[in-house]
Amino acid sequence: MRSLFTALALIVTGLTNPCAAIAQAQSSAAPHLERRGEATQLIVDGKPYLLLGGETRNSSSSDLAFMAPIWPKLKSMNLNTVLVPVAWETIEPEEGRFDFSNVDGLLKGARENDLRIVILWFGAWKNTYSSYVPAWVKRDQDRFPRVQTSDGRGTERLSPFSSTSRDADARAFAQLMRHIRKVDGTQHTVLMMQVENEVGIIPESRDHSPAAEAAFKGQVPDALMRHLSERRTMLHPELRTAWEAAGAHTTGTWQEVFGDTSMTDSLFMSWAYATFIEKVTAAGKAEHALPMFTNAALIRPNYEPGQYNSGGPLPFAIDIYKAGAPSLDFLAPDIYFEDYVNWSSQYARRDNPLLVPEARGGAAGAANALFSYGTLKAIGFSPFGIDGQGVVLQGDASIGLSAAGDGDPAMAALYGQLAPLAPMILQKQADGQITTVIMEGGAQRAGRGRIGDYIVNMSRAGGPKGDVDQMSRIAAMFMQTAANEFIVVGSGDSQLSFTTDRPGAPIVGIESIDEQLFRDGRMVTGRRLNGDETGQGQSLRLFSGDAANRKVYRVRLYRYR
């Protein structure tokens, strides 16, 4: 709508070509999310944008000189977007005095290397702690009260029940967004904003400060109960079960509505964090309405609230956050666990497009990225520590910073393979003609998926030395380009065969397999594969080196009796 009004203004003020006016308005509009067919996509300069990302380590972006050699390295790794922290303590070292020189330096470094950035606002919280708040906040615990344990001890965490802390965070974030609009309002180097980082509390399941105790004994807010009641049949099973097991009451205290359990404590804290983050997000969007999200640290198996970040935007709390923080565009999972498919799938909802801002990289990360972009139609994927800078540990002792090393060759190769395919990937996401078959670890002996009228059957295959790694994570992303034709992008060593359960001739044959290579930014046809390379026309073989060689495959199938 904003683009349309801009276009009309251009026409009225003398631009005679209406099409040119609309195109100019689209290119000048801020990055935003837009529903296109079956996918919600990030729109940058009027076009869908596939985020091929990586997140730096926490301290890298605080020193522009430290970042100087990192920017070109990240560009050489085929990223188009870098996720970088900006800390409250950096931009407001004294209350009311703002210094954006670090932000300006990050923008300069990104632009000089033709990269975009997503800014991670390390405001009131980072990984549950309030270690990135300014010193003037840390020292004044009367104005900025802390989370308290049940025995009255303070913690290194601002309480989300403090309006003073909330308003100070919101003012700083608003100033940051005002500055970004001023220096980047037309260039769009900054694509999105993450608001806070992995919120929640440990080691107990909720805040026991006086304000928190009063809120816990009070009524569950009407706004939350209305939201849950309206979406009852669509709620996450854990949330709905907790509510209904306690009687499905629509009024009452937190324990009356959700039960006397640690889950209730986590839901209570989720509402507190969500409503705090809403004020910060809304203040920022009032200055510059970029897409905004917050991220979740996930739960280890069998952990209780307090052993993990109690109150974070976990899957069962997504609807709590949707009700309490409507200004957020989506919630994003940080996924380091082996069961990537399970966790990522819980965040890929029609009302919650998927971005994975932190994840494992390497060969496993490449397979996970293909599953995200394909089956889950993700906006983007981003391995953590992509700059390769970090603390070297010897035993339990830190002995210094590592060298930059080789970065992440597996992710660099995958991104190099995906970059020229990005327009096709985005279109197939919108058309619903993309999927990924993935195998996760040794417990899974076969993979299976559907594309069009066909079923894809996946198994592991021998690597460069001929051995089969039964623990490897492998994936194959399919994009349908015609009724019986597909472009296939692989990660890892695998063998694919094809069957069908649709009406018609029952047996599936391979009509042809052609290598597709990327040369000078164009996809050209390489070898026609047959004979030994295809199991005498019975299967498609994918190799772990395909990404580094910028190779994908065009497969045509047919059916017979």
Question: Structural class of the helix and strand makeup?
Answer: alpha/beta
The profile of the biggest β sheet is:
9 strands, parallel
Give the CA-based shape. Answer: globular
- The count of DSSP E runs of length 2 or more, i.e. the number of strands, is 26
Return the average pLDDT rounded to an integer. 92
How much beta, percentage-wise? 25-35%
What can be said about this structure in brief?
This protein has 561 residues and is α/β, with parallel strands linked by helices. It is built from 18 helices and 26 strands.
Structure description:
The chain is α/β, with parallel strands linked by helices and 561 residues long. Helix content is 32%, strand content 27%. Strands 12-14-4-5-6-9-10-11-13 form a nine-stranded parallel beta sheet. A six-stranded antiparallel beta sheet has the order 17-20-21-26-23-24. The protein has a four-stranded antiparallel beta sheet with strand order 18-19-22-25, with no helix packed on it. Strand 23 and strand 24 (522-529) form a beta hairpin. Helix 13 crosses helix 14 (318-324) and helix 16 (362-373) runs parallel beside helix 17. The radius of gyration is 25 Å and the shape is globular.
